[in-house]
What does this fold into?
Amino acid sequence: MAAVSAELTIEPRGVRWTHLPLCVLDAVFSINARYSGVLRVCRAYADHDALVDPMLPAAAADTVLGTDREHPVEALADLGRQLGAERVAGEVLRNRGRTSPRGGILKAAAAIRYSEVLTNAGVQRIGDVAELLADPDRLAETELQLAKVPGHGAGARLSYLWMLAGDDNHVKPDRMVLRWLQRHLDRPVTVPEARELLAALADCLRRTAWEVDHAVWRRESGRT
It folds into this structure.
């Protein structure tokens, strides 16, 4: 445990998105993609819809969160209805990535469908996510509908969405996290097992699961 903790630079959440559509775009576009490209997508949308302070230090996020400055997720759904996924991908986000190289849909289309599901579930802003996560029945139904959107995989995308929206108990067991765990355990690790292992590690280190997950991601991606 000492060797593992010494390898990771574990820090609290530094910055965060202040609008739920950006959390959706980040969660959808980050799967199997370089994060620099994901940031370009989010910034393109923020510029298109003139979002105020789209990313802020976590301590300052309340200047947007819960105020009339915060952008609802239904705006992304409306944009999809107005332009269609093809035009959103090409003209607004300038990214035509797909959820899978074989038979996948445009990630723009997946993000629009995510926004539609959340809108139908009454989740419009980041503060609404905490209420959803606290309601097991409503959460189960919403996650069932979100899982129907192509690209769901083993659920990393959905867990990552809740993380981006501020929940510190979820982790994103993507290929970097799996690679890190496999290297330390010298054996294959499944996504469900990865969730349990990171949660247990966070508990041992007296840190949040988000902090450990992010530290592993930074380590494996070569960031300082």
About this structure: The first strand starts at residue 15 and ends at 17. Strands lie at 15-17, 55-57. The two ends are 21 Å apart (CA to CA). Residues 191-205 form the longest helix (15 residues).
